[in-house]
Design goal:
The complex is a heterodimer. Chain A is an alpha+beta fold. Chain A has helices spanning 3-15, 17-24, 28-36, 45-50, 124-130, 174-181, 212-215, 268-271; strands at 52-54, 62-66, 71-73, 91-92, 109-112, 120-122, 133-141, 164-173, 189-194, 207-211, 221-226, 229-230, 240-242, 255-261, 275-277, 295-297, 304-309, 315-316, 322-329, 335-341, 349-350, 352-353, 363-369, 376-385, 409-414. In chain A, helix 1 (3-15) runs antiparallel to helix 2 (17-24). Classes of the chains: A alpha+beta, B mainly alpha.
């Protein structure tokens, strides 16, 4: 049986008429291209028609979902090792006027705001010289990662699982910089702006805020290096915010100003965007100062995992040991266990967890077994974190398509 | 309409000449009444793959909400008659 027919049967069986239709719709060549991109069968036809492998400057070919502003995700194979290479790291912008070659010499970071006693500005050299450097390995994941897999679909960037990456971030502690500015007693939030801008004046600039308590945490950095080298231009050169455990919407790129504020920031990207319904997700750290009766800002990531090997549709040998591999992560409480199923969730076995690069990092895992007998096999992975949160088998619907953490399924044939 | 379209293309070129971006390949939309309006109004701010990737699942009400968001939240300068024609085109060609 060829791989394409197998996928058609597997998708048709698992997901019913919707998946079947999208495999009949596009032409054979579009389908072949979609397979080469490792595109999930649950993505809508429109994605499968225009998604393409494309190389941005300084990047290997990634999965292009939009050219302008660029929204490009990382193919699953790159997650087979827990650190995501800089040139394979995903790219995401809200606004199309993205900065080109920022001059490191003339760039300045302004720290001020009404709740700062001593506003000041830093050059990149001063940032590196005046504050102690520290490092953290942390997952940067788009709030809407896997949105494209929602059934029913919701509008937005139709990400598969690749809008995420794990890197060793080096920078200075945000709290050290804030301390130099002097935080007044009535400070409630810290507001961050970057160098990207909208095309039309009336479009709200991408500005985010953090509660003061979060901003003062040890691991929140103004980072200037990623995996040992300066930040790539498309990932925030010369400096970006790194908020380990929280979704990437807060990780503002190309930082230009930091304002300590006495009231909650009410710009569009805080007040209206990036909100989840109250009480629907098992969140520990909430952004209380921005909460309304109906919703609350998205904050920490939910526990999740990904099978990186074998890939969807692979042929595996009967009677030979098969190494199933993958990664697991959460909002910073640490991965407690990862279980694997080889019978579509009927039974589960404990996988072996690999090297621990800290509670904010991808945790690699592996599980070896010898497939026998069956022609079609559905592998699944289920992560549990140290505070007992686990992945869901039923999608938690929300209007904006955030926090997708259904257990990842990979269908293979044993032959 | 032609002047507006030229203005939109000029913005596009001005933006793309200084962009840290790959070669933006044109996104082909389906032929139909209103296609030109979509191209001239929407492409000023973003590439048209945003439309295609959000299909074919958006119902009329959701496409309507998306257009409304573009105009009200993001300040897209699109007059009401054009909004209606754009909605008709999207629902007909990219609706669920």
């Amino acid at each position: 049986m060829n791989r394409r027919r197998f996928l058609a049967q597997a998708a048709g069986g698992a997901a019913g008429i919707g998946a079947g239709r999208l495999l009949l719709g596009p032409s054979g060549s579009a389908r072949a291209a979609a397979d080469a991109l490792q595109l999930d069968a649950a993505l809508a036809t429109g994605v499968r028609e225009v998604a393409t492998l494309d190389a941005l400057p300084g990047k290997v070919p990634l999965i292009k979902l939009s050219y302008r502003p660029p929204n490009y995700e990382t193919p699953i194979s790159y997650f087979d090792s827990p650190i995501t290479p800089n040139d394979a790291f995903f790219v995401r912008y809200h606004l199309a006027d993205i900065p080109t070659a920022i001059d490191a010499g003339t760039w300045r970071l302004k720290i001020g705001g009404e709740a700062a006693t001593s506003p000041f500005a830093l050059s990149l050299d001063e940032l590196k010289r005046d504050f102690r450097a520290t490092e953290v390995v942390a997952v940067c994941q788009c709030s809407g990662n896997r949105r494209g897999l929602f059934q029913p679909h919701v509008p937005g960037v139709q990400w598969g699982p690749g809008a995420m990456g794990n890197a060793r971030w080096k920078g200075v502690r945000l709290k050290d910089v804030l301390e130099r500015a002097g935080v007044k007693k009535d400070a409630v939030e810290v507001v961050f702006d970057g160098a990207d801008k909208p095309i039309v004046d009336k479009t709200p600039d991408f500005i985010k805020s953090l509660p003061l308590s979060k901003a003062l945490e040890e691991d929140v950095l103004i980072a200037y290096e990623m995996n040992g080298v300066p930040l790539p231009p498309l990932n925030g050169f010369p400096a970006r915010l790194v908020v380990p455990g929280w979704t990437a919407t807060y990780w503002v790129k190309h930082l230009t100003s930091i304002d300590i504020a006495t009231k909650p920031f009410d710009g569009f990207w805080m007040k209206s965007a990036y909100r989840i319904p109250n009480g629907k997700f098992p969140v520990v750290q909430r952004f209380l100062g921005q909460e309304t009766a109906a919703n609350t800002p998205i904050t920490e990531m939910v526990v999740n995992s990904l099978i990186t090997s074998p890939l969807e549709g692979a042929k595996v040998a009967r009677g030979k040991p098969l190494a199933v591999r993958g990664i697991a992560w959460d909002g910073g409480y640490g991965i407690q266990s990862l279980e694997v199923s080889a019978d579509a969730g009927a039974t589960w076995s404990m996988a072996t967890l690999g090297s621990d690069q800290g509670r904010f990092s991808f945790r690699p895992w592996s599980f070896s077994f010898t497939p026998q007998g069956r022609a079609a096999m559905i592998l699944m992975a289920r992560a549990t974190n140290r505070i007992g949160q686990t992945q869901t088998s039923e999608l938690i619907l929300n209007p904006a398509g955030y926090h997708h953490n259904l257990m990842h399924k990979v269908s293979v044939t044993v032959g | 309409m032609r002047t507006y379209r030229l203005a939109a293309i000029a913005v596009l070129l001005a933006v793309s000449s200084s962009r840290l971006a790959a070669e933006e390949k044109p996104v082909e939309l389906k032929p139909g009444t209103g296609k030109e309006l979509v191209e001239s109004n929407c492409a000023a701010c973003h590439s048209l793959d945003y439309i295609v990737t959000n299909s074919p699942f958006l119902k009329t009400a959701v496409w309507e909400a998306e257009i409304s968001k573009m105009v009200k939240a993001f300040g897209a300068p699109v007059d009401e008659p054009s909004q209606r024609k754009i909605l008709d085109y999207l629902v007909k060609n990219y609706g669920g």
